[in-house]
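input
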Amino acid sequence: MQRSARLIQAKSRFALINTDVETRSIQLGEAARKLEALAFSWRGDAFEFDLNRRLGDIYADMGDYRASLSRLRSAASHFKDVEGAEAIAEDMRKRFRELFWKAVPTSWNPYGRWRSTKSSGS
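output
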């Protein structure tokens, strides 16, 4: 299959998956699985950037911030000249702040341990 036909097919799948997500006719996990398969089969241009960015958004919506930040970092570092690449860096900072400054419980210890919320005098 010619590259242009493959690109049209890939973009059509991408649009269909996004429509399914927006209409809630597909769960986010299934959308991520389908987009991962699509990303595996497509490399090297602005469409890969779009795939990585969308996967980053879906993973964030699922609460998987590690996967989200990883996908966004990949998009930002490999596609610096693509429109929107600069905005990804801001998205990454925003998600990082959300994760570590807003979503973290007060009993969280950055060294990987949870301290007791009970006072030692109880």
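quick obs: Residues 3-22 form the longest helix (20 residues).
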